[in-house]
Amino acid sequence: MYSAVIEELIEKFERLPGIGHKSAERIAFYILERMSAEEAEHMAGSIIKAKKSIRLCECCQNLTDQSPCPVCSSPKRDKKLICVVESPEDVSAIENTHEYNGLYHVLHGALSPMDGIGPDDIKINELLLRLADNEVEEVILATNPTVNGTATAVYISKLLAPFDVKVTRIAHGIPIGSDIEYADKITIVKALESRQLM
After folding, report:
1. How many domains does the chain have?
2. What is the pLDDT of residues 139-161, one digit of tens each?
């Protein structure tokens, strides 16, 4: 239907997560019809620059252009607290609350035996190395409330048992602003299990 060059561009965008064929077409044609050659070059240059300069923080494994990253190197952060998350996007979500002042550890995934992802495929060993200096007092397991995320949290909690640290898990339950009647059974069970004193 389109020239081979356009088809290739659409195919490249389709490889991005959350982008279907129609969205890929819209993006491709937006670039071809509405962006100037200079804007397209700047966009391509930004992608290349990011791929060349972004690396993992030596401490928390988050994506950064300097190591240690700004969070790990900040004297204002509570070094006794580490929040373990699956992805850099999770760090961003927690930071946007402006309520957490500790450090992070990014696993870059979750255990998934069905997909061939084991403990050596995510950044668990790097977390254990961080606990060796005995400065950390609490590790918050903030993996996703999925089967893989929960299995990862349980696995890590068992690994942390020999360390002198408090291991906690973020609460899961009914979102604020929603009705109980629309929640599924597992969400209601988790909400009951995570109940707190008032």
Report:
1. 2
2. 999 999 888 999 999 999 999 99
